Amino acid sequence: MNTIYLDHAATSPIHPQVIEVMTEAMKLEYGNPSSIHAIGRSARRVLDESRTTLAKSIGAKFSEIIFTSGGTEADNLAIIGSAMANRDKGNHIITTKLEHHAVLHSCQYLEKQGFDVTYLSPDEHGVISVESVRGALRSDTILVTIMYGNNEVGAIQPMKDIAAVVANHQALLHTDAVQAFGAIQIDITDIQVDMLSVSSHKINGPKGIGFLYVRTGTKLLPVSFGGEQELKRRAGTENLPAIVGFAEACRIAINSITERKEQYLTYKKRFVEILKHENIEYYINGNLETGLPHVLNISFPGTDVESLLVNLDIEGIAVSSGSACTAGSIEPSHVLVAMFGNKSERIRNSIRFSFGLGNDIEHITIAAEKTAAIVKRLRN
């Protein structure tokens, strides 16, 4: 049985072209980019070219990109590093209840260090209002960190409007763009954020590499110590093969954004059409057309998420949910709880389907038909 992989929001398969450039880099560019001899200088040239590619993808400067081990480290560095560096200006932070745990746990760590954190609630579509951000700002607010596109329901936040509000305040603005990067166009000259986190493995690049964009002049304390790499902001010898792969994945993703957006919207509509044809009761969590193109989160009343996941897996459909299923117990998705409340049935019967490299309309059709059959069986 061939598995149909519809969990690209969790991680994505590495693109064949990315594997090729990484393999070549591992063969030829084994030098340390910090070494001054010819082999080291060659590695430095490749590193600089990759950094330039990634910086241009969001309209940033070469020196504003800090390579990290992924989105989690980028979020940690942005939130903890900026909070500690700017503590003399205040100790208040604003975030949302929708954030990835890399953000939420960083904020919780800072609370233990004496910082005060405000957690904003979304509407039922998973969107944070600009007015709620404006209303939460205080004279001692030093950081606002709001996710660009949600990894569970695909909700896209009005970052440009939020940035306009924060621009008139001392607070820095950070956005976790891990799920949005490569899926939608992002230009930091347009949204005017101070920091932005990205991860490679969401865009068909390797795991273990990401970057943090930091606007020139932004105060940031390092959270790791060692050498003077990344302009003394992130110690450690750069993972050159992964960085080269990241840059190649970025080139491919940026050049295909429009094409993939149209393709994934077609997939969403096809999936929903089949559910309707099979008379399946369902609800869309988020917005079908205005959310991230590749994320489709659906609630199936009268079912439970664990049974859905197990049965879909048996049928060869690889998907996930916002729930952590461990030993038969289910921890409800914090995102869905924030959107619908902890008594809503949706927090216990929702599945995320996410599309990407290797999927086609036939895969979507098969997955939707099998999902419909499973839902009918579970309800009976």
Oligomeric form: single chain
Low-confidence stretches: 323-329
* Gross morphology: globular
The assigned structural class equals alpha/beta
- How would you state the average pLDDT, rounded? 95
What's the short story on this structure?
This protein is α/β, with parallel strands linked by helices and 380 residues long. The chain has helices spanning 16-28, 38-57, 71-85, 101-112, 130-136, 159-166, 188-191, 229-232, 240-255, 257-277, 305-314, 334-340, 361-379, and strands at residues 4-5, 65-68, 92-96, 116-120, 141-145, 172-176, 195-199, 210-214, 283-285, 295-299, 317-318, 324-326, 329-331, 350-354.
Description:
The chain is an alpha/beta fold. The protein has two domains: 16-255, 3-Layer(aba) Sandwich (Aspartate Aminotransferase, domain 2), CATH 3.40.640; 257-379, Alpha-Beta Complex (Aspartate Aminotransferase, domain 1). 41% of the residues lie in helices and 15% in strands. It contains 13 helices and 14 strands. It has helices at residues 16-28, 38-57, 71-85, 101-112, 130-136, 159-166, 188-191, 229-232, 240-255, 257-277, 305-314, 334-340, 361-379; strands spanning 4-5, 65-68, 92-96, 116-120, 141-145, 172-176, 195-199, 210-214, 283-285, 295-299, 317-318, 324-326, 329-331, 350-354. The strands form four sheets. It has a seven-stranded mixed beta sheet with strand order 2-8-7-6-5-3-4, sandwiched between helices. Helix 3 (71-85) packs parallel to helix 4 (101-112). The protein is globular, with a radius of gyration of 21 Å. 48% of the residues are buried. The model is unreliable at 323-329 (pLDDT under 50).
